[in-house]
Specification:
371 residues; alpha/beta; Helicase, Ruva Protein, domain 3; 5-stranded parallel β-sheet; 17 helices
């Protein structure tokens, strides 16, 4: 019950007593393990961004300078592997800038490319956020074109509030002609737009894979986020658990080293530690069991094993051979092209090549592939 309440509270934090019994709700006190699990959930917005001070300062400087100029003609491109703090750093910087009275007022619009049904839907969502009116992608693009590119009468000051457009998972907006990304960044360069774009992608070399006319727009100001080292991951976990005596230092160190050796994805490390805290909580509630004082190495090991044996992982390993080959082909084609989209023709050709050249296996027919 305390774990459920912790999830609902979403990471409230400690009162600084250090005893680990700080969160209260409806007369019920959460244990230090439940509080730790709440602080480690991905929804818990951190007060600080440890180990990303340089990148955060660079983002702040670029955004502050752009907002002073009404945002026009500015864009940022942030790249790095998943779980390296790109989106969290931008959110943290925007929250800080919103409290600076010397800066002009601005609004933030955030769109995640991975959640769109098609790249063109970004026009509809952007126009709806700006005007409050719904329109089809084609109509929305025309309205945005007029709004962002209309010329101002001579001597008339801009009255538009600056717009910060945060495009997460930018690679999902890549199309065959790359017109969607080009239009968005082209609008940002217009002196009449008052729009600043922040593009975030997991692909380090996405601008180089774009057409020259698009590359010249996207790569205006680039900031790379490199994977966290084990010391960074340990510091981030420790910062989340400030004033909570719930984890052994050796357990945090083990988790940090395990994750850093594979991916450097801090979200994975937070998930392992969160599950370890839940296992410790469960053990503390078991009758007849000796309640643990801290989350230990054994809890970390058990949590890591459970995550490796997730339902999705088990389902994938039990797929038929051709479905496994199709999944593998999707990843290989996506990796070679740098695009999240994989068309059926490329997938079929790659799957056929793998079957015939490496496995001496009869490939799927077109009808079987479509099924």
């Amino acid at each position: 019950a305390s774990l459920t309440e912790a999830a609902r509270l979403g990471g409230g934090g400690s009162d600084g007593s250090g005893a680990g019994w700080a969160l209260h709700s409806r007369g019920r006190t959460l244990s230090k393990f439940a509080e730790a699990a709440a602080c480690l959930t991905p929804r818990a917005a951190p007060e600080r961004m440890p180990c990303r001070e340089r990148e955060r300062a660079e983002v702040l400087s670029a955004l502050r300078a752009a907002l002073v100029e009404d945002g026009s003609g500015s864009s940022l491109y942030l790249s790095g592997t998943p779980g390296t703090g790109k989106t969290a750093t931008v959110h943290h910087a925007l929250r800080e800038l919103a409290t600076e009275p010397a800066l002009p007022a601005f609004r933030t619009i955030e769109i995640n490319g991975m959640k769109l049904s098609s790249p063109q839907q970004v026009y509809t969502l952007l126009w709806e956020a700006i005007s409050g009116m719904h329109a089809s992608p084609t109509r929305a693009m025309q309205c945005l074109e007029r709004r962002f590119c209309e010329s101002q009468p001579k001597g008339k000051r801009k009255s538009k509030m600056a717009t910060v457009l945060l495009l997460d998972e930018l690679d999902y907006l890549v199309t065959r002609t790359q017109s969607v990304i080009y239009n968005l960044f082209e609008w940002a360069t217009s002196s009449a737009s008052g729009m600043l774009i922040i593009g975030i992608s997991n692909t380090m070399d996405l601008p180089e894979r774009l057409l020259p006319r698009v590359h010249s727009r996207v790569g205006i100001h680039r900031i790379n986020f490199f994977p966290y080292a084990h010391a960074d991951i340990a510091a981030i976990i420790g910062d989340r658990l400030t004033n909570l005596d719930a984890f052994n230092a050796s357990g945090i160190e083990l988790c940090a080293r395990k994750v850093a050796s594979v991916s450097g994805d801090v979200r994975r490390a937070l998930e392992v530690c969160r599950l370890a805290a839940q296992l410790a909580e469960r053990q503390a509630l078991e009758r007849g069991a000796s309640p643990p004082e801290h989350v230990t190495i054994s809890h970390i090991d058990a949590a890591a094993r459970q995550l490796r044996g997730s339902v999705v992982a088990r389902a994938v390993t039990e797929l038929p051979v051709h479905q496994l080959l199709l999944l593998t082909s999707v990843l290989l084609v996506s990796s070679s092209t740098g695009r999240a989209e994989v068309d059926t023709e490329s997938l079929s050709a790659h799957h056929r090549g793998v079957c015939l050249q490496h496995l001496c296996l009869e490939p799927l027919s077109p009808s079987e592939l479509s099924e």
